[in-house]
Amino acid sequence: MLSSRLLPLLLLVSASICYHNTEASTHWLLNTNGQIIPQLTSPFYLRRSYDLIAFLNQNVYKQKIDLIIAELLQIKSNLTAKMNNLDAYTNELTNKIGCIPNFYLDESDILSTIINMNYINRITVPDKTSTTTVSASVGNSRAVASKGKNPSPKCADYLKLDFSVASFDHLDGLHNRTQLKMAPEDMFKSLEYYIPSVKSPQALADDLRKHPTSWKYHTIASYYWRKKGNAREAIECARRAVVLAPRKHKDIPLLSMGTILQRSQYLNDSLVVLRAAVDHEPSEPENQMALGNTYMLLSEFNRSFEAYKAAESLDSVYSEHNDYIKKSINCFKDLKINLLTMERLLQDIIPGLERYGSLQKEFDEYHEKLDREQAPLKTRVFDEAYSKQVDFLIQRSQICTTRMTKEKSEPILSCDFISDVQMLMEDFAVEILNNYVDLKKELINTYKINSLGIYKKIFVEHF
């Protein structure tokens, strides 16, 4: 009982007494064999063994470091488990990407453009309703004389049309039609042989001038502007065509209007218009396909497949296209789920890593204070009889140099040594973890940007 009380006092006294030539250790430990041995890496092995304040502060720093190390070890274990899980999903990518070359689908592959000759014939074959008089549904519409030496097929130059519910002007896309933007539809170049005026703006302008109330010429003019990628002019022509067309042909300009909205990313408005096109003519496969494409872009896959199936039942030419889309969805669904899971796991790692980095800075701060008062490891006195301690120092040699002395002709090897705390610092290298996270981010973003195609925008993972 008495010895247990005296031991702390003896340690304190030994740390406070200074003799210039002393060879006493400032910290001893009782091992399992009952031997008291000096601890060379003790934080209480001070440069100034007589400094009581430094001795007391060392205890505070040591306790703080112990707490930090315990939390660092816990976080590192947790991060390691999460990184191993993330690596498993990374390895799975190899199995997921095999189908990409065969079933890649870009947004342009799912957007609608008429290429069906049966549909085109409905426009090109003359009928009694190819021109009409301006009806009451047009409202304040009136013919406008084309001006200028080089007339263009701008439909507003030939027929005025103010706000009209019949042309769906209540929709946001139509209300903001001057802001619509779309890419050129190169597929319309294949129509130039069947509809020459699609190629000739002069001929189309002449037709509009002669027949300003013809729904067909306004529809063809909308194709002309879609081919140019001018959504603003294309929608103006489509509006007029929708108002002017008789009921049995109204689905044709409705399809053009819905497609312009679709390509301009007004998908909900496109859905309203294309549903109207299908309502007017459900037996037209082009209408069903366009509706299915908009449902697809809105990630409503079940309704999309219903429309695709309807189009396929009307014309088997669409079966191959629809089969390709189904296989593409199955391929990219697995890939996207894998990438999103990786992204979620990576985001789950970041908070722990941030705390890890913060703790490491705190660790370095307290270690610097602890190390400032400690005697260098290589200068500490030890009994050569303790062979394990000699081996201990040899194993911890870090930087060694040789020097000559006057007393001896042979060079002397001098080394710096790594303490326990310094070794732990190397284990907690936050830079390695940060590099790991950066590489994973780059990998995920590369696949999402370059490999997902249309599936960057649609929620195939919910299918």
TrEMBL record:
Gene3D superfamilies hit by this protein: Tetratricopeptide repeat domain
Entry protein name: TRP-phosphatase
Signal peptide positions on this chain: 1-24
Organism: Culex pipiens pipiens
PANTHER family for this protein: TETRATRICOPEPTIDE REPEAT PROTEIN 17, TTC17 PROTEIN
Keywords, sorted A to Z: Signal
Chain segments annotated as transmembrane: none
Domain of life: Eukaryota
Stored InterPro entries: TPR-like_helical_dom_sf (IPR011990), TTC17 (IPR052630)
